[in-house]
Structure formats: structure tokens, C-alpha cells
Design brief:
Layout (H helix, E strand, L loop, with lengths): L31 H14 L7 H13 L8 E3 L2 H12 L9 E5 L4 H9 L3 E5 L10 H4 L8 E4 L11 H11 L5 E2 L4 H6 L1 H4 L5 E4 L12 E4 L2 H11 L13 H9 L2
Helix pairs in contact: 3-4
The protein binds pyridoxal-5'-phosphate (PLP).
Length: 257
């Protein structure tokens, strides 16, 4: 199990006086003593590369915590990187016919930066007054719908985005959806049946998040991503039938065709 670190492990004294600014959030990363055994394992194995044993173990334990099948979660170097990877795998870069990415007007700058990195023009849409999230039903009749290449709903204040309305939206419009669930780790873990599914969810492990590694992120579950990779490679005669999908495995499959 992944244990979010408890408040009792903090060493910094709470010095706030009455009337002083009360922080909305105070990052609480594991103390050095808890991290040290993992650093020792790195020293012993001298494996520092991507997809090393610690990263694989983290993916395995996260999948277990979120009640996903093994291999159904991929780690990334940040929440932004997870979002970019999920967008590229779910639909690819923007096209001249569909240059727009609908994102909520209420979000963090990284959502817009991620869609821009994939070539999309961010198109801000209002959030619903009661949920602070994009409303899938309302977007069905969006005047620019025919020019939209992707929709990226965001989990506001870490409240996770339900899968079902977006699964229906995608089925009705054919427009891919990737959820920016940067701060929603705790909510996802509470109800994975409601908040994880066919629509990929990008998560951040930045120091300001409930489960934090300092910098880091993940996409869960990448089954939809795997499907997109399979579809893209099918015309080349390459069949992918296992996850996680590794770049070196794809190169081998393409070379050996
Ligand atoms: C809504 C949202 N999206 C994306 C990100 C980016 O995550 P990261 O800082 O891990 O790249 C954040 C980070 O705070 C966020 O709040």
C-alpha cells in the first residue's frame, strides 16, 4: 500500500500567531530517513535509468493502491509530462482541421501549457457554477465543436472528475478526452470505480500534492493509450498485446516486421 505521509512526521514547528496568514497548503514530503533506504538501493544496484527497479516498483504499488491491473499505470517525470504523454497517445498533435483544445477557464497554467506543447490552441470554456468543472453536456452543443481536437477537463481543488459523462461525450462526438486530475490522487484512490476507466487521467506528484515525490506524475490507466498505440501501429503490421508498452519493445517489433 502507498501510505500518504502523516502530519506527525513533520519537523517544522507551527509558528503561526493569531492574525497571521494561514497557509492553504503546506507541503509535507517524507523525511530524509524514510527516503534513505531507497537511495541505498540505488547505490547497491547502480541502476539510475528510466524504467529502473524503483520506478517499476512505484508503478506496481500505485496500481495496487488505485485497484488497477498491474501494468495499467505509467509514471512520468511530472504531472505536465504525464498530461502531454496522455494527450499525444490518445489523439496525437493538433491538426489544421481540429486545432483547438477545450480546457476549463478555471485551472492551473500547466493545463494550457500541456495542450500548447501538443500543438493545440487552448480554448477556454466556462466551468459549471456548482462543480467548478467543465460540463460535458453543455459542450455537446459548443459552437466550435467541429474544430475541437481534444477536451481536457480538470479536477478542481483535487475533486476527481467522473468518467461516465466524458465517456458518453467521447462516444457521441468522437472527440478524445484526457482528464487533468493533477491534484486528485486521494479522490481517485477512494473511488477508482467512478473516477478511473477508459478516459486517461494524468496525476501530479509535485510537492504540493497529497501524494508527493517532489516532482513526478503518472497516467492511469493507460489502457486507452495502449489502444491508441495499437491502432497507430496496426497499418505497419505490428501487433501490441501487452502492457506496459516500452519504447525499446516497439522499436524491436517495427524492425523485426
Ligand atoms: C490542474 C493542474 N494541472 C497540471 C499541473 C502540473 O503538474 P506538475 O507540477 O507535476 O507538472 C498542476 C500542478 O499543480 C495542476 O494543478
Amino acid at each position: 500500500m502507498i501510505q500518504p505521509h502523516s502530519a506527525s512526521s513533520a519537523t517544522a514547528a507551527d509558528n503561526s500567531e493569531p492574525g497571521e496568514i494561514v497557509p492553504v497548503l503546506r507541503p509535507l514530503l517524507p523525511l530524509a530517513d524514510r527516503i534513505l533506504p531507497y537511495l541505498r538501493r540505488i547505490d547497491e544496484t547502480r541502476i539510475y535509468s528510466n524504467h529502473g527497479p524503483l520506478s517499476s516498483e512505484l508503478e506496481r504499488r500505485l496500481a495496487e493502491h488505485l485497484r488497477l491491473p498491474q501494468g495499467a499505470l505509467a509514471c512520468a517525470s511530472s504531472g505536465t509530462a504525464a498530461l502531454i504523454g496522455a494527450i499525444l497517445a490518445a489523439t496525437g498533435r493538433a491538426t489544421s482541421e481540429r486545432p483547438l483544445a477545450i480546457i476549463p477557464a478555471f485551472t492551473f497554467a500547466a493545463t494550457a501549457a500541456a495542450v500548447e506543447q501538443c500543438g493545440y490552441q487552448p480554448y477556454l470554456a466556462d466551468v459549471a457554477a456548482d462543480s467548478w468543472m467543465l460540463d460535458a453536456e453543455r459542450l455537446l452543443s459548443h459552437p466550435e465543436r467541429e474544430r475541437v481536437g481534444i477536451v481536457v477537463p480538470v479536477a478542481p481543488f483535487g475533486r476527481p472528475v467522473p468518467q461516465e459523462p466524458w465517456r458518453r461525450f467521447r462516444a457521441m462526438t468522437g472527440i478524445p478526452v484526457v482528464i487533468d486530475g493533477a491534484a486528485s490522487f486521494a479522490g481517485l484512490a477512494d473511488r477508482p470505480d467512478r473516477f478511473l476507466g477508459e478516459i486517461p487521467v494524468a496525476i501530479s506528484f509535485h510537492a504540493t500534492k497529497v501524494f508527493a515525490t517532489g516532482e513526478g506524475g503518472a497516467v492511469a490507466p493507460p489502457a486507452a493509450v495502449a489502444n491508441a498505440v495499437c491502432d497507430a501501429l496496426a497499418p505497419f503490421g505490428v501487433e501490441v498485446n501487452a502492457t506496459p508498452i516500452r519504447p525499446e519493445q516497439l522499436v524491436r517489433a517495427l524492425k523485426g516486421r
